[in-house]
Amino acid sequence: MKREAKRREAKKREVKKREVKKREAKKRKAEAVTVRDLSYTYPDGSKALEKVNMKVYEGERVVIVGPNGAGKTTFLLHLNGTLRGTGGEVKLFGRTLGEMKREEVVKEVGMVFQDPDDQLFMPTLFDDVAFGPINLGLQESEVRERVRKVLALLGLSGYEDRAPHHLSFGEKKKASLAAVLAMEPRVLVLDEPTANLDPRSRTELIGILNRLNEREGITMVIATHDVNAIPELADRIYALNRTVIESGTPWEIFFDGELLKKNNLDVPDVFKIFEVLQCFGFSCESLPLSLDEAVAGLTRTIETEGGHIHLHIHEHTHEGVERWRRKYEHH
Amino acid sequence: MVEYPEIDLFSSLDSPIHRFDPRAKIVAFLCLIFSVVLVQDLRLAFAGLLGSLAFLAASRLPLRFVSQHIKWVSFFIVPFLLILPFTVKGDEIFRFYALKMTYEGLEYGVLVALRAYSAVVLVLPVVATTRFDLTIKALDRLKVPNMLVQMLMFSYRYIFVFVVEFQRTWRAMEARGFKLRTSPSLYALRTVGKALGTLFVRSYERGERVYQALRSRGYTGTRNPKTLVEFKMQARDYALAVLIVGFAVALHAVSFVFARGV
Ligand SMILES: Nc1ncnc2c1ncn2[C@@H]1O[C@H](COP(=O)(O)OP(=O)(O)O)[C@@H](O)[C@H]1O
Ligand SMILES: [Mg+2]
Question: Fewer CB within 10 A of the terminal residue: chain A, N end or C end?
Fold first, then answer.
C-alpha cells in the first residue's frame, strides 16, 4: 500500500520535472513577439498604453489580464499592425513589424476579435473562412482543402452555407476562430475568447486552443478577465493597466496576495475555496488553481494522510475566514 | 426570437426558376423587366403582366410571401393610378366639380400601374429564388462594378446585425416603460431620435472594427472580397434564357407591327 503511494509520488514528481523541462525548452526558443516601450495615444488624446514591454516565446501561451479599459484590446491591435504605436516598437520573430509588408504580417499573426459579428463579415461561413486563404493568394483547391480541414477541426462541418446570423453565439465564436486558423498563422491573438460563452462552449473553446498549442505549436497571446480560465490557458501572465504592472507564471501571480490586492486582480474560484478549506485545517503542499489541479492535490493529500482528509473548526478558523473575506473585498 | 427581413427565405424550394443559373436569371429577367416597363400599348402591357405572372407562378413562391411584397410596393403604385386619370389632359369621361377624369389619363394611369406591377412581379423570381449571397456572387461574375458588389455584400451581412441591435435597443426602451403608440409626444419622438443616434454611432464604431477585422485577414479593398463559387450554364439554362428574352423581344416586336399596321 505504502509502496504503491510512493511509486505514484515518484511518477508525479517525474511528470512535474518534465513539465518544468518543457517550460524551459519553451524559454530557450526564439522570441515570437517582442514589444519594447510601446505607447499609444488615441487621436482624442486618451493615453491607452504607456511603455509596454513584453516578450512572448515561440509556442508559449501568454495571457494578458487587466480591468476594463486597461488597454488590452488596444495592445492586441498593435500585434498585427492594425494600430501603430506612437512610441516604441513591436517585433515579430525578430523583425520589426513596421518594416514588414502587410501581407507578411497578416500571414504570421491571426487576430480573433472579441465580437464575432465584427469578424464574420461574409454572407456565408464558407466564404468567411475562405476569405483569408484567398487573400493569401492560394490556389482554389488549396483554399477549399483548408476550409474543409479547419471546419472539421472546430466541429463546424456541414455549416458551410450557413449565414452568420443563423449561427448561435458559440458557433459564431468558433467560426471566427476557424476563419483565422484557415490562414495558418504562427501567432494567434485572441481578445476575450471566453466572454459571453455558455459553460460548455467555454470549456470546448479552451480545449481547442490548448490542443492547437500542443499539436501545432501555435504561439498564443490572449486578453481576458476570465480568471477561472487563466490557469488552463496561461503559461505566463502579464497584468496590464496602461502599462505592464506585473508578469510571471500563474503561481507567481496568484500566490502574491500583496500584488493581487494592489492591482485589484481576482483569483480562480478553486483557489479561493481551497484557501477557505485551509482555514478549516486542511493542509496541502500548494493550493490548486484549476479543477484538474484540485483533483490531483486532493488525491495526493488524502493518500499521504492515510485515506481521508480532516476538516475541523479550530480557534483560528473564524478569524481566518474573516481575513479571507477581507482579502477579496476590493471595494 | 428575432425576425429577419429575409428576401431569400424560400430560395431552397425547387422550381425551374430556382434551378436557373443565377447569372442567366439576372440577365434574362432584367431584359424582360426593361421590356415591360418600356411597352407603350395597353394591351401589350397587359400581356406583359400576364407573362410576368406566369414566370412568378413557375417559381412556386408561396402566395403569402408574394402578396406581402407586392402589398408594400402598392403603396407607391396605387397613388399613380388614382392621380393620373385626373391630371392628364384629354377627352373627358366625367367631371366632379373641378376634377375631370380623362380617357387618356385613365389609360396612362393603368399603363403605368401595369408596367410597375409587371416589374415588381418579375423582381421576385430573380431575388427570391436564389440564396442572396449567390445573387451577389453572380453579379460579381457578371462584372458589376466591384464597389457595388462589396456594398451589397456587406450591407446584406450587416443589415441583420443592425436589426438585432435595433430590436435590442427598442426592447430596452420598452422594458423601461417607453411606449410610442399611446403617447406620440414630442418627448417620445425626441427619445426615439436619441436612440437612433446611439444606434448610428454604434454602427459607425462597428464599421471601424469590421474594417480592422477585414484588414487583419488581408483585405486590401480592390477586387475584393473574392469568393469561390461555381456557376455552370447547362442546355436547360440557355433554353429558359431564350424563352424569357424571346418574350421580352416579342412584346416590342408586336408593338412595332401594331404601329406599322395602324
Ligand atoms: N477608438 C477609441 N478612441 C478613443 N479612445 C479609445 C478608443 N478605444 C479605446 N479607447 C480608450 O482606450 C482605453 C483602453 O481601451 P481598451 O483597449 O478597449 O481596453 P480593454 O480592452 O482593456 O477593456 C480606454 O480608456 C478607452 O476608453
Ligand atoms: Mg477589450
Answer: C
List of chain A residues whose C-beta atoms are within 8 Å of the C-beta of residue B130: none
Residue B222, chain A, CB below 8 Å: the answer is no
Spatial separation of the C-alpha atoms in residues B156 and B4, rounded to whole Å: 11
- Do A95 and A187 meet the contact criterion of CB atoms below 8 Å apart? no
pLDDT digits over B162-194, tens only?
Answer: 888 888 888 888 888 777 766 667 777 888 888
Q: How far is CA B216 from CA A62, A107, A179, in A?
A: 20, 9, 11
The per-residue pLDDT for range A202-245, each reduced to its tens digit, is 999 999 999 999 998 999 999 998 888 888 899 999 999 999 98
Regarding an ipTM greater than 0.90, the answer is: no
Q: Which of A130, A180, A183 faces B228 most closely, judged by CB atoms?
A: A130
Cβ proximity of B24 and B241 under 8 Å: yes
* Separation CA A54–CA B212 (nearest Å): 23
Q: Which amino acid is at B179?
A: K
Which pairing describes strands A236-241 and A61-65: parallel, antiparallel, or unpaired?
parallel
pTM: 0.83
Whole-number Å distance between alpha carbons of A313 and B212: 57
Q: How many residues does chain A have?
A: 331
